[in-house]
Each structure stands twice: as structure tokens, then as C-alpha cells.
Amino acid sequence: MKALYIASTGMSAQERNVEVISNNIANMRTTGFKRQRAEFQDLLYQQVRRAGSQTSNEGTMLPAGLEIGSGVRTVATPRVMSQGSVVATERELDIAVRGEGLFIVEMPDGSTAYTRDGALERDDQGRLVNSSGYPIQPGITIPEDAVSVSISPDGLVEAYLGSDAAPTQLGQLQLARFVNKAGLASIGDNLFAETAASGEPQISLPDIDGTGDLLQAYLEQSNVNSVTEIADLIAAQRAYEMNARVISGADEMMRSANQMS
Hints:
Family: Belongs to the flagella basal body rod proteins family.
Number of helices: 2
Main location: other
Strand content: 25-35%
Shape: elongated
Subcellular location: Bacterial flagellum basal body
Largest sheet: 5 strands, antiparallel
Domain Flagellar basal-body/hook protein C-terminal: 216-260
Keywords: Bacterial flagellum, Cell projection, Cilium, Flagellum
Oligomer: single chain
């Protein structure tokens, strides 16, 4: 009986949906995290009677066909790249992006990754790095005798060195934009990687061409909405239960047919 297979695809799809929702909820407090959503597509149809086929010698046609579906599948889990809330941290190396831009990160193997996580640190050489120790690009080094660090909305990094009365420019932060942000690949550690679907990065200074400006001593929070996720979780559970009932109903029908034979 096809109903067993069809309902099993529905249960599998909702199981994947619950996994996506649980990952969103688990990362509610992850800096710069972007929530995902599961998207579904129906499967192939068996054409028992095709719409428009001729029904008589006079040329009359079927106004509607007879199609039997095969179920559902999870086709994608795109990220929703909307802006998360921005909160003050009172820490001078915390930076939030207010716009579409992403920080550029140099990976240990020389490749480039991108992130919305602006919780930056200084390594043992004074370089500006992310929380995993990967340098932010273009590289900026903060001298050991820097008294305070200032980061302007357009990404200019300055610091007062020793007893200097005027600040010294240390470098200029840049941001990357992508034509299709949802096409970025998540590689963990709050990092994204470029893909063929995302397009090539468009590098520019902050506050130019929609990249967004920078807010020093602020961090962008996750864009996960707990109420929305709980509502989606309840809906997924109910859909799973309904598919399970279809399997139980189909089983009862098969049992009745066997008892009659």
C-alpha cells in the first residue's frame, strides 16, 4: 500500500524539520547566529489519467487528471540572514555590524571565511583575531603600549600609544557582501564559506554600498525568535503525529483485507 511509503516520507521530513528547529533553539545565545528553516517539495506523481486526454470520439477532454503523489522531501535549509538585535557590552574590541556586511577571516590553511561574530580579541602578537584565534583581514596589529582602541563606524582603527596626545591609525577594517547570502556554507565556529551559489565576495569599506556601519562595544545577537521556534516545533510535532496516524490507518486497512481473504 502506497500510503505507508507516502506517510513515511512525511515523518522523515518532519523529523528533519525538528532537527533544524532544535539547532536554532540551541543557538539562541550564539553571537551573530542566523536561524535556518526547512523547505519542502512534493515528490513525483503517478499519472493515472492525464488532464486534457481525449475521452470520446467527439474530442471531449478530461478537465482534470488523476494523479497519485509519492510524498514529500526536504529540499533545503536556507539561513535567514536578517539583522539580529544589537546589545551593548562595554568592551572595546566587541564590534557589531549594522547592515549586510561580514567580517573577513583568514583560516589556518590560508583560505578565507566570513562571520557576523564581532567578539574580537588580541593574540600574543597583538593581532586582531576572532574568538578561535583566526586573524581578521586586512590584518591589524594593536601595539602593546596601546592605552585605548577606537573603532569608527567606517572601520578606521585608532589607538592612543603610551602618553601620546593624538591617536595613531592602526588600520582599516573591511567587510564582505554576497549577492546570495543564503548560499553561504556554514562551516562551524560562527563562520561561513563562499560557494558557487553565494557568488564571489564584494569587499568594501564599512558603511558603503549597503555593507553597514560598525558599532564599537556592541555585539549582534542571534536572530532566533523563541516564540516562533516553539510554534514551528508544535506544528512539526502535529504533522509528524498525523503521518504516524496515516501509517496506523493503512496498517489497519491491510489487516482487514488479509482477514477477509
